[in-house]
Amino acid sequence: MPKITTRPYALTTGLLLYLVLDIAVFGVAAFSLFGEGFRGEEAVFGSLLGGVLTACGIVILVETWRASRGRRSARKTLTYLSILLAVLYVWRRLLPILLLAVLGAVALVFVWLPASEAYYQRIEPKRKRIRGYASATKKAAGVFRKK
């Protein structure tokens, strides 16, 4: 488990912004579910939005914790959730979702800076690809052939 002091400041800032985003997502979800912002025909949309944002908030919380431990997949999941928030804003044009999308975009920039990439490369190196799969299988098959 990596120490917090070995983590770059850019990554720490990005992860803290994701925690702030998580609190904001839960706040908007609670307002959508229990507030009086949606009435009449839009009540169904408010319930749907609240449910989706609650699920996003739980995933953001878990993936932020995993990203702080050096997991590359968590960083990609946080990227996808930030994109989802931006698409959700484009779809409905609500001010609270705009604030969530902007906060997610800023956190996303910090998490993908080169210093953060170097940290993830040090903690969880990328696997090297085997080039020439066909030639590798031919070589492997050639070992078992009789000459």
Structure report:
There is one protein chain. By secondary structure, the chain is mainly α. The protein contains six helices and no strands.
User: Main sheet, how many strands, which sense, barrel?
Assistant: none
Structural shape: elongated
Through-space gap between termini: 51 Å
Counted up, domains total 1
SS-derived structural category: mainly alpha
**What Rg do the Cα atoms give?**
21 Å
| SSE order, one letter for each helix or strand | HHHHHH
- State the helical fraction: over 70%
Kindly state the number of beta strands.
0
Overall mean pLDDT score?
83
Could you give a short description of this structure?
The chain has one domain. The N and C termini lie far apart (51 Å).
Q: What key attributes describe this structure?
A:
147 residues; mainly alpha; 6 helices; 76% helix; 0% strand; membrane
Topology (SSEs and partners):
Elements: H1 9-34, H2 43-68, H3 72-92, H4 95-111, H5 114-123, H6 133-144
Helix pairs in contact: 1-2, 1-4, 2-3, 3-4
